[in-house]
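Design job #97: recover the sequence.
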């Protein structure tokens, strides 16, 4: 079979992989790039595409070093989006859709009646972050927030307006990237194919022959770990887990001019509604961490999402028509942070683990990674996230347990949990969560603190998680 030699292979056709391929090929027109797809429900096709830098800020993210680095990275990505979007659209203008990509600006953060102290702290943290970073954040009357028609006992008590937080339709944006890539003569696309090392470089074995390159970028989302392991079983790479997410697109019960969302809660980015290019509402999203990516959504996640949306956002959604059920696996490094940059193996780069930040951060990741690959210029934005780093631990085990327990309590509040009315039950519930998590964390190997957002893995998949952590720590010795 034919063998073709190119300069860079990019594995993973989600928003990060497509963006990296575009940045490489447009950054140096003579550079030959092959973009290979990957199987499975990825995060990009299911994303809500909130391009917000402050909407997900929490007290924890402002009080920990790497949390602040993530906030600052998000702010820088937000600054780059307008120019990046224009460049992509101009490159692929011939194939652009006349009705656009749904791009707009404006986000309302709602602190509603089915909240917990965790929500209040996040609400205050957003205000504080706006003040510290010079981003517009204004408290408004809940009655002035457009398109909100909740049940009375779930109504917003306070609201913030973030006028600069942008949004778009993720599926339309992927089409824009495809149009731009199709317009570049030095980009070739191929279906999913096995990747291996041939000693001097990397080989993609496609149906039409093999493609060889000295450089490969693995941007395969939640499927990254087994793919890299197949290339080099001895490479020490932080394991990548999945965070399953479920969302729906529905016919609009009312015009939606801006994003509506609650603060970050229950390990997720809060309940949110995002305007779509066709006028529909995107409602998201659930979050369920897993060591192995899932194939389909769980019914419980769909039920919880719809119940929350009808109660907290607009009860007119009860008669809305379902247009699409979205499901995807968000990639997250096992220490809670992304993996971006060069590995210890020459020519092998990784861009994954972005969790909920992938689409929003994609311009920055693509531009900085392309610059490093093409010019060898180290990026200060990517330096903290090296894929072969020691695990980041901004938490002690007890701090992580306490934060995870607070998220569990927030989930119970949002689900309107009503235990027997005894004076002891609220504290008894909190104590039960704390004991459960303490026992689960106690089963994990020493030397690794699981971040709070992955805490359910500690009791739902404890044996497999312990083995994954143990193997990773042994390789680091």
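Job complete. Output follows.
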């Amino acid at each position: 079979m034919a063998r073709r030699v190119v300069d860079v292979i990019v594995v993973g056709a989600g928003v990060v992989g497509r963006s990296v391929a575009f940045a490489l090929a447009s950054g140096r027109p003579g550079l030959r790039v092959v973009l290979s797809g990957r199987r499975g429900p990825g995060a990009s096709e299911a994303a809500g595409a909130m391009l917000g830098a402050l909407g997900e800020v929490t007290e924890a993210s402002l009080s920990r070093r790497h949390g602040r680095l993530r906030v600052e990275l998000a702010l820088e990505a937000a600054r780059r989006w307008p120019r990046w979007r224009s460049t992509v659209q101009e490159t692929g203008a011939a194939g652009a859709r006349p009705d656009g990509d749904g791009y707009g600006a404006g986000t309302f953060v709602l602190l509603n009646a089915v909240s917990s102290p965790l929500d209040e702290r996040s609400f205050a943290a957003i205000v504080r972050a706006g003040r510290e970073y010079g981003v517009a954040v204004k408290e408004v009357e809940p009655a002035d927030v457009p398109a909100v028609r909740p049940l009375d006992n779930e109504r917003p008590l306070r609201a913030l307006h973030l006028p600069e937080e942008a949004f778009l339709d993720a599926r339309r944006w992927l089409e824009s990237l495809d149009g731009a890539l199709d317009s570049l003569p030095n980009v070739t696309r191929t279906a999913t194919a096995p990747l291996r090392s041939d000693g001097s470089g990397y080989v993609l074995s496609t149906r039409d022959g093999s493609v060889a390159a000295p450089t490969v970028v693995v941007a395969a989302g939640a499927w990254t770990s087994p793919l890299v392991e197949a290339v080099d079983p001895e490479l020490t790479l932080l394991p990548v887990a999945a965070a399953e997410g479920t969302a729906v697109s529905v016919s609009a019960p009312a015009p939606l001019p801006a994003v509506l969302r609650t603060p970050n809660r229950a390990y997720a980015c809060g309940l949110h509604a995002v305007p779509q290019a066709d006028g529909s509402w995107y409602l998201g999203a659930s979050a369920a961490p897993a060591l192995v990516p899932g194939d389909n959504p769980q019914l419980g996640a769909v039920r919880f999402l719809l119940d929350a949306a009808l109660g907290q956002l607009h009860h007119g959604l009860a008669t809305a028509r379902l247009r699409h059920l979205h499901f995807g696996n968000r990639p997250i490094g096992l220490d809670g942070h992304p993996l971006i940059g060069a590995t210890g193996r020459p020519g092998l780069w990784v861009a994954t683990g972005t969790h909920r930040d992938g689409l929003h951060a994609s311009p920055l990741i693509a531009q900085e990674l392309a610059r490093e690959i093409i010019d060898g210029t180290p990026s200060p934005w990517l330096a903290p996230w090296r894929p072969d780093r020691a695990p980041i631990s901004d938490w002690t085990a007890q701090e992580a347990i306490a934060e995870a327990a607070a998220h569990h309590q927030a989930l119970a509040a949002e689900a309107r949990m009503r235990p027997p009315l005894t004076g002891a039950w609220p504290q008894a519930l909190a104590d039960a969560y704390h004991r459960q998590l303490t026992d689960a964390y106690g089963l994990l190997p020493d030397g690794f603190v699981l971040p709070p957002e992955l805490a359910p893995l500690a009791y739902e998949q404890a044996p497999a998680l312990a083995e994954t952590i143990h193997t990773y720590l042994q390789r680091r010795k």
